[in-house]
């Protein structure tokens, strides 16, 4: 369905990074466990490594990063639609809670707002889902017709 939608819109995704992402997430839905596990490993490492010490950044950007990271990890599950998709997403949110709980042992802090941002990212992935991915692909592959 997704492939036909994109083809009917004339979107060509060959030999581009976007095309590779499209192939992994949408065309070959059997790879979603690998993509999700890789994302979980990255998030776990980033969440448990010693905190960055430097000048203060943009207030609240940490929560946006949590939302985006967990939403991106949830998106392949939503697009692949395995049996028990809601159970997988609940496990993903519980994994984020487990990471938050062990952070105090790694010179980090537990933050309920981080857990809320993680859940919001997962929920947005569920809400946006496959149609959202198609819309993003449309925007990223749109040809610019400019007249000078």
From TrEMBL:
It comes from the Bacteria. The keyword Lipoprotein does not apply. The chain crosses the membrane at residues 31-48, 60-79, 85-106. Keywords: Membrane, Transmembrane, Transmembrane helix. Signal peptide: none annotated. Residues 58-126 form the VanZ-like domain. The keyword Membrane applies. InterPro entries: VanZ-like. This is VanZ-like domain-containing protein. It comes from Planctobacterium marinum.
